[in-house]
Amino acid sequence: MWIRRRLDISWRDLFYGIAQCFIRRKESNCIEGIQRLWPRPENIFPCFSVRTGFDLLLDVLDVPEGSEVIITAVTLPDMVRIIEDHGLVSVPVDITPDTMGCSRESVQKVITPRSRIIVLTNLFGGRFPADDIIDTAKKEGLIVVEDLAQSFSGCIEDGHPKADVSMFSFGTIKTATALGGAVMSVRDPDIRDAMTERYSSYPYQTRRSYLLKLLKYTLLKTATYRMTFGILVVLFNLIRIDYDRCIHKWSRGFPGPGFFGKIRRKPCVPLLALLRRRLNRYDRGRLSDQRSKGERLLSILGENIECPGTKAGNHVYWVFPVCVEKPDDAVDLLRRNGFDATSRHSMYVVPVPEGNKTDAPDEAGRLLAHIVYLPFYPEIPFKEIERMGAFLK
Ligand SMILES: *Cc1c(COP(=O)(O)O)cnc(C)c1O
Questions:
Q1: Is the beta carbon of 153 within 6 A of some atom in ligand 1?
Q2: What is the pLDDT of residue 253?
Q3: Does the beta carbon of 55 sit less than 6 angstroms from any atom of ligand 1?
Q4: Is 11-199 assigned to CATH 3.40.50.1370?
Q5: What is the pTM of this model?
Q6: Which CATH class name applies to 284-392?
Q7: pLDDT score for 174
Q8: For residue 323, what pLDDT is reported?
Q9: Degrees (nearest 5) of the Cα angle 49, 50, 52?
Q10: Rounded distance, CA 233 to CA 247, Å?
């Protein structure tokens, strides 16, 4: 059975990370090493996770309590939790399913005198066209934050040049993962300095916890091969454990109580060392393979099935979701034929704040209720991608 996701990290990288936990390196060398890989090194702010960096950013921006943060309606619940923790109000803008972006008109509609920040989330591995939205937002004096956690495609570019901040994640399930870590590109030097200053007082992630994480995923990586995973699924079914739920639970970042304590950390030096190595050696051939497989699957499905986000630009197909009438039936059919599709995911629709007259994000709601994620990564050969597509046509 083809598992839904594979970790985008090799055995060598995992062992390199483990080894780093036992040697000393200078933190500043690792940070500079990461910065140098990007077109404008001075803008680059490596941190522990996107959630850490976003939380830190809201801290230093210090906008008045009760201000509004406009956010594209589909994101991680934690992003909204962070906004609310700062006494701010998140106001959703509905998405346009073909790009998973939003339109300038819908943004214009939700801007009020209390709006201060806009967060543009790019989903599934594409970039939606945002030029006119950013221009409008800037004219209204908003700070523009780009969430590119799912859209890393190499260090050759660091986000939209007109956005104030762009964020890339290297968390466990992301492209080029270092089992944690994130890179923010912060274009205003004052904001950057304030972030650096404040971040210096954060505690470090412990080496021990990072080592345990590396060991855990070294073990789990074994389980992601087609054969091992197939056997595990049979075993889980025999003892009547819902493996779908288990995978979902195990792959969540920062679960359980004490969320803010968990994210407000600096990465340990071994993480920075592994992140530098990952970014430096990232094989763009892998991305182009993934892209051509995505295009092939789209050409098989596109006419008959809604493939959200696929009209976005520079698509690397980080995931390949489809939107179907009966998700459970599609998941069943695919699983019976060796493809571990799932309708379980960790995103949600940003609710309209109480008393706010903004339109409910109906498209976002419809989409998430009907979404099915297909197994999709470069290790699946074209022949299997085509076989999977045939079940959905
Ligand atoms: C993964 C993800 C995040 C969070 O990234 P972390 O580095 O794990 O905090 C934020 N937004 C989106 C859209 C994501 O996919």
A1: no
A2: 76
A3: no
A4: no
A5: 0.96
A6: alpha beta
A7: 96
A8: 96
A9: 65
A10: 11
Q: 3-class SS at 146?
A: strand
Nearest-atom index, ligand 1, CA of 75: 13
**Contacts of 371 by beta carbon, 8 Å cutoff, 6+ apart:** 308, 321, 322, 323, 327, 343, 345
Question: Alpha helix (H) ranges present in the chain?
Answer: 11-20, 27-35, 50-61, 77-85, 104-110, 131-139, 189-199, 207-222, 226-238, 243-250, 259-263, 269-281, 284-301, 327-336, 362-369, 382-392
Nearest to 218 by CA among 13, 2, 3: 13
Flag whether pLDDT at 252 surpasses 80: no
Domain ranges within the chain, ordered by starting residue: 11-199, 284-392
Question: Distance, CA 117 to ligand 1 centroid (Å)?
Answer: 18
Query: Who has greater pLDDT, 197 or 256?
Result: 197
Q: For 281-316, write each residue's pLDDT tens digit.
A: 998 899 999 999 999 999 999 888 999 999 999 999
Q: Decide: 347 in ligand 1 pocket, CB within 6 A.
A: no
Task: Give a three-class secondary structure readout of 329-346.
Answer: HHHHHHHHCCECCECCCC
- Which residue is associated with the tokens 């702010």? 45
In the reported structure, the alpha carbon of residue 276 is separated from the centroid of ligand 1 by a whole-number distance in angstroms of: 19
Q: What mean pLDDT do residues 32-48 have? A: 98
Higher pLDDT pick, 388 / 393: 388
Overall average pLDDT of the 55-72 stretch = 96
**Strand 44-47 relative to strand 182-186: parallel, antiparallel, unpaired?**
antiparallel
Name residues whose C-beta falls within 8 Å of residue 234's C-beta, 6 or more positions apart in sequence.
Answer: none
Distance CA 35, CA 45 (A): 8
